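## Example pair
The file below holds two records. Each record gives the amino-acid sequence first, followed by its C-alpha cell line.
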Amino acid sequence: MEEKDEKQLNFLEEIIEKGLNDGSYKSILTRFPPEPNGYLHIGHAKSICLNFGLAKKYGGKTNLRFDDTNPVKEDTEYVDSIQNDIRWLGFEWAGVHYASDYFEQLYQWAELLISKGLAYVDDQTLEEIRANRGTVTSPGKDSPWRNRSVEENLDLFRRMRAGEFEDGSRVLRAKIDMAHPNMMFRDPIMYRILHAHHHRTGDKWCIYPMYDYAHGQSDSIEGITHSICTLEFDIHRPLYDWFIQQLGIFPSHQYEFARLNIDYTVMSKRKLLQLVKEHYVSGWDDPRMPTICGFRRRGYTPESIRSFCDRIGVAKRDNIISYSLLEFSLREHLNKVAQRRMAVLNPVKLVIDNYPAGQEELLTAVNNPENEADGKRQVPFCGELYIERDDFMENPPKKYFRLSPGTEVRLRYAYFVTCTSVEKDAEGNITCIHCTYDPATRGGDAPDGRKVKGTIHWVSARHAVDAEVRMFDRLFAAEAPDEVPEGGTFLDNLNPDSLQVLNNCKIEPAIVDDVKTPNKENGVDAPHRFQFERLGYFCTDPDGSSDHLVFNRSCTLKDSFKIG
C-alpha cells in the first residue's frame, strides 16, 4: 500500500472538516478581532496565521474586526499599525469591521433582553458588585436593584444612553444566576457609562458594551462560523452561547487554543506599554520588542514568522516555546534568501607589504551559495585591508586557526597571506598588522596544493563604507521574566547587554547600491537583509540614511545565546 505523507490534522482542522462533511455549514468564516489599544505582538501573529490560514485552507474567508469598545485606550494609530502588520505577514481580510459598527444593534438587543426580564440596571458601585459576587465556593448576593420592573429598567437604560448619569453611577447587567458555579454567569455587566470621545463614533455614545456582551453578538452579525480564541476565554464560552441563545440570532461558536508563550519574553500589552512609556526601549518597534513591527525592524521575514507559527502547531494546553526556535525559523529562511556581503565590525588595519603599490583589482564573490540565480558580484581589493580584530592573536593558543605571527591564512575570495609583524600604540594596542601575500593563490587556492586551516573575511580599506551596527540580544536575561522575588517586578530581569552599538564598522561598497531602492513586502516598508559573512544576519534600520548607514543584527549564524 502506498504511504501518504500527510501532516496530521490539528483539533481545529478536525472540527472544520467534520462540519463541512456533515453539512453544518457550506463554507467557513473566521475573524481576527484585536482591540486597537496597542501594537500586535508575536502571540497575535499566531492567531493571525491560524485564523487566516484555516480559512484559506478550507476555501473560506477571514474578517478583520476591531474590538473598539473602550475609547479611553484606543486610537487610529493602532488601527493603522494592525492593518500594516497583517498585510506584511501576507494575509488579506474579506472585510474590515468594527464593534462600533454594531453599537446601535447591540443597544437594541440589550433593550430586548431587558424586555424579556433578562437584564437590569444596577446602581451599585463596581466595588459593591465585586464584593457581592461571591467566590468559587460561595454564592453571590443579589443586587438590591435586581428586581426592578421592565419599565423602570428600560427608562433608566435609555437615560444612561442619553447621558443623564455620571461615569460609574450605573451599569446594565444580565440577569442570570448569582449562585451559578461558573462565576461568569453571576449577572455579568453588559454596559457601563463612559463619557469619552471615541476614535470613530466621536461623542455619539456615552455607554459602551463590555467584551463578553459585544463579542459573540458581533460574531453573529457577521455570520462567523468559527470564533477562535485563546485558552483563557474557555470559561467565557458558556456566556457567549447564552447571549446568542437568548437573542435567537445566528449561532456562532467559540473554540479555544493555547496562547503563545515564549521564554525570555513578556507579551502583556500593559507591560509592553510600560517598557515604551518609561523608555526602556525606543518605541513599539524597538528591535528587542516582541511586537510584529519590532520583529520586522529587526530583520525577520513574514515567511520566517509564518514558519515558526506552523512549527509550534495548535495545542489545547499552554506551554512555553523556546525563543531559539523563532531564531531558527529566521535563519532557515534568511540562509535561502539573504545576499552575502563582507563587513568588519571591529576593524584593525592589515597591510600587504609586497602587494604592488597603488594597485587595485576586482575579485569575484558569490552572492548566495544557496541560490545560484542570485549570481555573483565584484569585490574591490587593494594592499590595505580591514580585518576583524578577533581574527588576529599575537600569542595564540593551540588550535587557533586564524591569523597570528608567522602563520598563513586565506583571505575570503582573495589570496593566502602570512603575518610578518605588527605595529602598536603607546598603550600596547595593535594598530596595524603587516603581511605578505602569495600572488599565485588568487581565488583562495594554492597551485602547489598546500592547505591552510583558517579563512577570514576582510574589506578593502580604500573602498570601505562606514556604518553603525546595532548588536541586539534578548531584552530579558531571565527565562521567565515575570517570575521575581516578592517586591520585585519584571523590569528587574531586563538584560543590561541587550543592545551594543558599534560605530566604526566597515562594509564592502556593494552595500551602497543594495540599499538605494526602498524595500516593500506585501505593500509594507521592510528592511534590506544580508548575511555578513562569518558574523550573522543583519538588516538596514530606518534610522540610517545614504550618508549614515545603520544596520541591526537580526540573529547570529547559529544559536549562541548565553546568560549567566
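Second record, same layout:
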Amino acid sequence: MNKNERLQKAIEATIIAGHQLSNEAFYYLCHNCEETDPLAIMNMVLHEIKNLKDKPFFIEKKFLENIVNQLTQTHQAAQNRKNQTTNQTTKSTEFNKEEEEKIQDCKTQQPSFRPSTAFDENTFHPYAKYISSELKILEDATDKLTSNGTLEEYNTLFQDRYKRIEKILRQRIDVKAATPIREALKSQPKTKLKIICMLTEKRDNKQQTILSVEDLDSNATVLVPNKAPDEVKKKALQILPDQVICIAAIKTKSNLFLAEDIIFPDVGQKTPQKAQEPIYAVFTSDIHIGSTKFNKEAFKKFILWLKGKYGTPEMRKIAGYVKYLLVAGDIVDGVGIYPGQQFELTIRDVHKQYDFAIKYLEKIPKYIEIVLAPGNHDTSRKALPQPAIPSDYLTAIEGKTNFHSVGSPCLLSIHGVNVLMDHGRSLDDIVATIPGMSHNHPEKSMRLLLQGRHIAPVYGGKTMLSPENRDYLVIDKVPDILHAGHVHVLGFCNYKGVLVVNSGGWQEQTDYMEKLGLVPTPGKVPVINLMTMEITVLDFKTEN
C-alpha cells in the first residue's frame, strides 16, 4: 500500500474501533505520513487504549506524539543494539540469535520513525479524502413518473395527497377523533368537532375569513370570525390553497361551521441525526452558467477553496473536511426561459452551457461527492416532480463516479443525515399568497412547507404540477435538513430541529430581479458540519 492508502486504512481502523481523531491529531498524522507508518501508529494507539480504564472517544494529538516518541525510542534502541552486535561479530563468529530476532521484530513493526515537526497552518490537509463516502438516494421519482395529463390523473393525485396527509394528521393525539364532513354536517347545533379537509377557496375581508373545504366525500364552509382569537386568525391567513389541514369547529344551526382552531400537519420537535465524524457538506444552487450575470470570479474562488488553494487558514481547514456538494437546481441559465433572455446570454446553446458547467465542476477534488438536481432553468421538464436532467445534456460526467444526477425533490442521506432537496419554485406561490412573506427571507416560506408537509401545495399558480398517480411532493419523512434555492437569496433557520437552508446562488441582480425588488446574495455559501449541524457562511465575493 502507498502512504495515502495506509493513511486511509489507519483512519478506517480508528472509526471501526469506535474512536475519532481530533482535528489536531488528524493533522499530525497526515503531516507525518511521509516519514512514518500511520497504520502502524494507529494500531499501536488502539492497542494502548484497550488497556485504559477510561477509553476516550476522541484521540488527541498528545496521545499520538507519545506513541511516536515511544516507537522512535524503541527503534533507536534496537538500532544501537544492532550496531553493538555488529561490532562484536568482527571479534567473534558467535552471534546472539535472540538479539537478532528482537532487532528484526522492531524493523517489521515500525520502519523509519522520525519525531514530528510543528503543524503548518498554511498546509492543506484533505481529511475528507480518507473518509469513505456515505451517500444514499432514499427517494427520487425520476424513474417512477407515468403521467399522461388526464383529468382522472389529477383526481388521483389530489386524492393521494389527501389520504397521506390525513394519515399524518391522525398521528396527532388532538386529531385522532376527527369526523368526516358528511357526519359533521349531521351534528346538532353547538356541537364541537374536528374535520380533516382540503382548502379549495379562501376569501378574506376585514370582517371575517371564509374557507371552502372538502374531503373525499363532501364539502363545507367554515367561518373564521373577526372575534376569533388572534392566533386562529393568523393561522387562517397562512393556509395555502389545496392544503390539507384539520379544523376544530362549532356546528351552527345551518351547514356553516365556526372555526375555533386550525391544526396543520406540521413536523414534531425532533433531534436531528448527525454524522459520527467531522464531515462537512456544501449547499448551493442557481449557478446559471451561460448568463451574463453569472459571477464567474466568485465561483472560481469557490472551486479553488475546495481544492485548498484559496481563503484564510480557517477557511482552508474547513475545506479539508468537505465531502459533499449539493446543488439544488438552475445549474445553467437555459435558453428561451423568459422573453428577451437571448440578450442576456454569453452562451446561447444549452448543450454548451452544460459542458461549461461540468468543466468548472470537474475541477473539484474527486473525493467530493457532487449531487446535481434540476431547477426551472434546466432542461428537465418544468412540472413537479422534476426528473433528473436528461443524460444527453450531461455526457461530460459519464464515467465520473463522484457525480450524481437526481430529480427534484429528492431525499438523500449523507453520512446518516437526511436531506430533502428541492429547487424551490413553489416559494413564488407562497410569497404571492401569504401576507408577510417575501423573497428576501426564503427560510420563512420554507418553514410553511414543513408546516403543511408538502413541497408545493398550490395548484394553478406559478408552480406547474404533474398529475402522477402518487403525490411525490408530500413530506412523509421529516428530513434533518431542508435545502432549496430558486430565489437567489441566502437564508436559514432551525425549525423544530430541522435545519432550513436556502443557499442563494451565483448570479448577480438581473433586470427582472430589480423589477421585483429582489436583491440577490451571490457568492455566499452555507457549509454545514454534519457532526454538529452548525452552519458556516463563506463569502467568495469578498477578498480573503
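Notes on the second record: The CA atoms of residues 78 and 104 lie 9 Å apart. Confidence is low (pLDDT under 50) at residues 88-120.
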